[in-house]
Description:
heterodimer; A: alpha+beta; Glycosyltransferase; eight-stranded antiparallel beta sheet; five-stranded antiparallel beta sheet; 29 strands; B: alpha+beta; 33% helix
Amino acid sequence: MSDGLVQILEGNTFVVSDDRGDIEASLTDPTGLFSFDTRFISRWVLTINGQRLTALSTDDLQYFRTRFFLVPGTGTVYVDAQLSVIRQREVADGFHEELRILNHEDQPVRLTVRVDADSDFADLFEVKDALKKKGRYDREVVDGKLVLRYSRETYCRETWISSTVRAGIDENGLLFDVEIPAHGEWKTELDVVTSDGQHGLHQHGARQHRVRRDMARGLEKWIQRAPRLESDWKPLEPIYRRCLTDLAALRFSTLTMPGRALPAAGLPWFMTIFGRDSIFTSLQALPFAPEMASTTLLALAERQGTRIDDFRDEDPGRILHEMRYGELTAFEERPHSPYYGNADATPLFVVLLDEYERWTGDTKLVQHLEHAARAALNWIDEYADLQGNGYVSYQRRNATTGLENQCWKDSWDSISYRNGDLPGFPRATCELQGYAYDAKMRGARLARLIWKDPALADRLEKEAADLKRRFNRDYWVEDGGYFAVALDGDGRQVDSLTSNNGHLLWSGIVDKPKARAVARHLLGPRLFSGWGVRTLAEGEARYNPIGYHVGTVWPFDNSFIAWGLRRYGFRDEAAHLVAGIMQAAEVFDGRLPEAFGGYSRGLTRYPVQYPTACSPQAWSTGAPLLMLRVGLGLEPSGDNLVVDPALPSWIGHLELLDVPGRWKRVDAFGRGRVDTGRLLAR
Amino acid sequence: MAARSGPAYRASMPAAHARSASLASDPVSQFFGMLAQPGHLTTFEGESATLRFDLLDGQRTDRWYLTVADGEVAVTRRGRPAAAVVRIDRPRFEAMVTGRLNAQAALLRGLLTVEGDIAALMMFQRCLPGPPGSRGRVDPITSRQVMAERKQELSAS
Lengths: 682, 157
């Protein structure tokens, strides 16, 4: 988020304003009230006697509530204000603003208080790409409320603005003639409600108040329900609390499942379902908030692909990539209704389903999602094998608004040969084969145990073994001692060294004898920065320590790599990644950015944040949580939770109490014994 | 449940949808006929709901009921309680059942309204065909083409 901007949010509704609480957006400027990917307020400016105000302080009381302390005037010289203005804003179905003006003089004052209001009803995509609108704007006053409206054919979006104190309403806003007695106070409450022009607005007011009450209570409950953490390393507790609070803020409810929440991808621009991000975050949060995983699975299954649709890159069985609700999606000018262009969420869907069952024992959900899981497994073989060579590949069919790289490293230059050349399409990146392998193995477990289909289980295991054998032959870069990042359209290795190797360990596709060399690379000087594993190794042509997927360190990536290292028994190596990411989390006050610079730790001393639009980002929020699981060595085994800690020595004693799962609640204790000093000093 | 191989999944959509481009004069009857005929769609397994479709055609309202019971599909014209009532102009519905209009987009645009359980509509849309002309395949692109395109974009900017 840019400096000086204040944001609050709930669900997919959020407000971004300046530090006075004012909003003055242009088409390309990311401030405003947004809901369902549409901007409902683009101008919201408070003046007193025609004067703007100055912020004394801004308090983020909750993620959904902010309070602004203001005084009249905009001078740089300090004001001896006779008035104070307190503006408190909460997000619900729109926002609610309490406006209080305090008179500090010993005589009454008369004031003209004005709130300018307007909306451009921009689609989030338009804000990003600066596109022009095609519809019509109008505004009217209905029952003392100001209604701003945008319509294009049958598409309609409205903003309803009202005040508890009677206001003079004109087309540009609300006007109050105010008299405040000596040392007195004046107050009004403003409601801004968003609408698609179809639903009765009358219920909204009552609903808003209920929602507001629930939000405050919900956060406390959410934190109480999560395991409790105590540690000798004091920064860990605030890091943990920050992660839980941010995860709560990222909860997103779909229209079809009100009252249930899944993790959206990031705040504020990615407050929607992303297949990949929601799955990865659900995996990270399993020991802490397992119910998120079940909602993610249900929501993704509900929208699972069923047909061939080239515009949306949809196939039968495919799990969606991204869902959007704005005007461009509505008019099919963008494919996000939903868009399916990813090649990893479908196998990962099966991985999450199995991991969820291993933790919770919720066989009911596995039964309920049997068809979806079978369709996902079927997609891997029937629709994802674009080259007929037994590997999962991707190539977009929507060449204008589809995604080129349909793996988590989705920027244009993320997949390259050592010399920097970019491969053609289709591309079969290595981690996709790992996920496919894992999906088949886990699918086999579910088929045998829960669906009672041993024939399917046998077939999946046989296919997995065959995939593993071929993969270890075809992707292994002999002169490097690691796995190529991809095979190109000719079956040639895309031979650069990348962090993707860590995901391969996580998936289990790596032959044991090769794992040692892979682990050595992950903690070696080309990939390991001292804070974490770089996305692309130093020495590759496209390596750039501040390149999005070509040299930065991603906390989420590292958390899965650490899990992978543990899977293959590299306890100390995993503890190093736990150490690096936890120490970075401390620097960022518990809120890890999506990525930070891949500079060597010895060079910059502090991790250098990569500037991204979203904070918090869901899978960065989940990274410390997964690191806790990895460090404590938490692993379900039948109806028990195994605890097998391998933690950095400086963490000292660590306990995680009341870990939920099929064992009901279990406490996990660990003591740090791994000396991480030498490598982290790099 | 027995293991299903690939072809069973293709059958999750009525086979005749593959030929949707050549639908005859009344695509609506044909669509509902195709749903009712096999009587079972795997994509609806585990799902149960009744939807009522009100197709607005000038002064007339054409009413159809679709009932799903764990994958079993029944279509009637006679009244029964419905979890969701979907209202839409008949030509728009024809576009939807022939793959020319996406249901989610139609909902966002206000071309259709749904009263009641929106999850039932989400379930229903799974049996709609894809756009005519979608092939599921595109021609491969070589590394040389990718590099040339990048160069072009760079020089353009």
